[in-house]
Write a structure and sequence with these properties.
The chain is an alpha/beta fold. The chain has two domains: about 120 residues, Rossmann fold (3-Layer(aba) Sandwich); about 110 residues, OB fold (Dihydrolipoamide Acetyltransferase, E2P), CATH 2.40.50. The chain is built from seven helices and 16 strands. The strands form four sheets. Strands 2-1-3-4-5 form a five-stranded parallel β-sheet, with helices on both faces. Strands 11-10-9-13-12 form a five-stranded antiparallel β-sheet. Strand 4, helix 4 and strand 5 form a beta-alpha-beta unit. The longest helix has 21 residues. The mean pLDDT is about 90.
Length: about 240
C-alpha cells in the first residue's frame, strides 16, 4: 500500500517514518509538513493510506480529511483524545494517540490492509439494491446477492461509499450508504451510535456515556447522537 505522512512536527514525522518502514506492506511515498503540501502532492499522485495529524497550522487534519479522494483511507495521529469523535465524522479508519505505540500502530496497519483489500474486491459499481425482510436482509456483494440474518449482524460500519457488515465469522462489503442500510434494519434492535456505525443492541456487552463495547471492539457514541442513544440503550438494554 502506498502511503504518506502529514504532520507539522519533524520529530513526529521521523517517528512515524520508522514505524512505516517497519512494515514491508507499506511504501512511503512522501512525508509532508502541512495539509497544503499534501494537497499539492495528491493532485499528481495516487495514495492508498494517509497517516494524518489533526492539529496543524492552517488547514487542520479534520478539515483536510474532508477533501481527500474517496478511495484513500485515513488514520489520524494526534496527542489529543478529544478528537476521537470527530474522526468518525470524516470516516477515518483509525485513530492513533501520540506517542504512538508500535503494537497499536501495527493493528491500525493490519486493519488498513484488510479494508483496502475488501474495498478493492468490492469494485466501483453503482450503489447496489438491498432488501429488508422480517429476520434478514439481502445485499449484493462480490457479484452475488447475499442473505444475512439480522441476529448474525454485530455492527455495521460505513466506510467511504460502502458499508461493511460485521458478523462473527465474516465481513460483507456492499456498495450502499449507511442511511440506506439503516432503513432496512429494525429499530430499536439496531441503533445508530455515530455517523459511521450502527450496532446490534443485543450484541452490546456494556456502554458508558461515550462508548459502546462489543467484545474487544469499542465504538464511540457521537456527540450529536448521545441524547438519543443513551435513553434508548437504558430503556432497551
Amino acid at each position: 500500500m502506498k502511503c504518506i505522512i502529514i504532520d507539522d512536527e519533524p520529530i513526529a514525522r521521523r517517528g512515524m517514518k520508522r514505524l512505516v518502514d517497519s512494515r514491508h506492506e507499506l511504501e512511503l511515498a512522501a512525508s509532508l509538513d502541512s495539509a497544503e503540501a499534501a494537497g499539492d502532492f495528491l493532485a499528481d499522485n495516487n495514495v492508498d493510506l494517509i497517516f494524518l495529524d489533526i492539529e496543524m497550522p492552517g488547514v487542520s487534519g479534520i478539515e483536510f480529511a474532508r477533501q481527500i479522494p474517496r478511495d484513500c483511507l485515513v488514520v489520524f495521529t494526534t496527542a489529543y483524545s478529544e478528537y476521537a469523535i470527530d474522526s468518525y465524522e470524516v470516516e477515518a479508519l483509525d485513530y492513533l494517540m501520540k506517542p504512538i505505540d508500535p503494537m497499536r500502530f501495527n493493528r491500525a496497519v493490519d486493519k488498513a490492509i484488510s479494508y483496502h483489500g475488501l474495498l478493492e474486491s468490492a469494485g466501483s459499481a453503482p450503489e447496489e439494491p438491498a432488501v429488508g425482510v422480517t429476520d434478514h436482509i439481502i445485499v449484493k456483494a462480490d457479484r452475488r446477492y447475499v442473505k444475512i440474518k439480522l441476529d448474525d449482524i454485530i455492527y455495521v460500519e460505513g466506510l467511504k461509499d460502502y458499508v461493511i457488515i460485521h458478523m462473527p465469522e465474516r465481513r460483507v462489503v456492499t456498495r450502499l450508504t449507511l442511511k440506506g442500510i439503516e432503513e432496512l434494519l429494525p429499530y430499536p434492535a439496531f441503533i445508530r451510535v455515530n455517523k459511521s456505525n450502527i450496532v446490534n443492541r443485543d450484541r452490546i456487552d456494556s456502554f458508558d456515556t461515550n462508548d459502546v463495547f462489543i467484545g474487544t471492539t469499542e465504538i464511540s457514541i457521537g456527540a450529536s447522537y448521545r441524547d438519543f442513544v443513551l435513553p434508548t440503550l437504558l430503556g432497551n438494554f
